[in-house]
Amino acid sequence: MKNAYYAERVPTGIKGLDEAMSGGFVRDSINLIAGGPGSGKSIFALQYLIKGIVERNEHGVYLTFEERRDKLVQYMKNFGWDLEKFEKDNKLRIIEISPKDVRKAVYNKNLGLKYGTARYIKAKRVAIDSINAYSLLFPTEVAKREAHVNLFEMLRSWGVTVLLVAEYDVEEDKGSPLDFEVDGILRLYNFKKGDTRTRAIEIYKLRGSKHSTKTFPLEIVDKEGIRVYPEQNVF
Ligand SMILES: Nc1ncnc2c1ncn2[C@@H]1O[C@H](COP(=O)(O)OP(=O)(O)OP(=O)(O)O)[C@@H](O)[C@H]1O
Ligand SMILES: [Mg+2]
Q1: Prediction pTM value
Q2: Most distant CA atoms of the chain, gap in Å
Q3: Among 32, 33, 39, 169, which is best to mutate for testing ligand 1, by the most ligand atoms less than 8 A from CB?
């Protein structure tokens, strides 16, 4: 088997981050972006899709269980991203999924229409916001585990590079059971020191890849999006 280090990469498009990741995510892998509330997970996930479209001509699908579509479109205008324009050009689909849709889809072992959509626009990137919201739909640990297995199986069959948003407290160093299942994990921090908070990012895991082991500063910049500083220290 080809060593994943030399495997084809799917760059996040964030300057400095891709270099710290041997070029980006491994093509067709499933990855997590984890962090607490307001840590920048949704912005990161959308930026990943937009950079894919603009810089690589790789189309994207954003499945959201929690953000309202209209709100998201408005919100992302702050970063200069016109989501509706990308949708009109069939380069992006933002799909709001109701709990009812998911249950139906899971029983059918696929997201039905959603796969049709991904195929229709020839999507190469998929972001799911969030995996917690999806897990909540299943009542027991066993049911959740089965739902994850089904979801992963389905996503792997699509031939896309996936970014799952995961909500958990990275500062407590708590993880999720999914941490063992995915190919890569990025963690977003929002440290408090004195009376200010500092954002940072860590490449926590990247299967088969050489990557930076440093936690480095990250900023959310108005009209631009996420920017990282791999050469700098957090404090
Ligand atoms: N226009 C902007 N310019 C700079 N920073 C912004 C801007 N808009 C939002 N932010 C910052 O980004 C944060 C929210 O980012 P995002 O929505 O990606 O978080 P999240 O991790 O998805 O949060 P949640 O778990 O609550 O969904 C805000 O709390 C704010 O600090
Ligand atoms: Mg969010």
Answers
A1: 0.94
A2: 51
A3: 39
Phi and psi angles of residue 39, each rounded to the nearest 5 degrees, phi first: -80, -5
Q: Ligand 1 within 6 A of 42 CB?
A: yes
Per residue of the chain (235 residues), what is the pLDDT tens digit? 455 556 899 999 999 999 999 999 999 999 999 999 999 999 999 999 999 999 999 999 999 987 889 999 999 999 999 999 999 999 999 988 876 776 676 666 555 556 777 788 899 999 999 999 888 888 899 988 988 998 898 899 889 999 999 999 998 878 888 999 999 999 999 999 999 999 999 999 999 999 999 999 999 999 999 999 999 999 8
Q: Which residue, among 188, 197, 142, has the nearest Cα to 167 in the 3D structure?
A: 188
Asked whether residue 233 is assigned to any structural domain, the reply reads no
CB distance 40 to ligand 1 below 6 Å: yes
Q: For the chain, what is the domain count? A: 1
Residue 13 structural domain: 4-228
The verdict on residue 153 lying in a domain is yes
Distance CA 27, CA 207 (A): 12
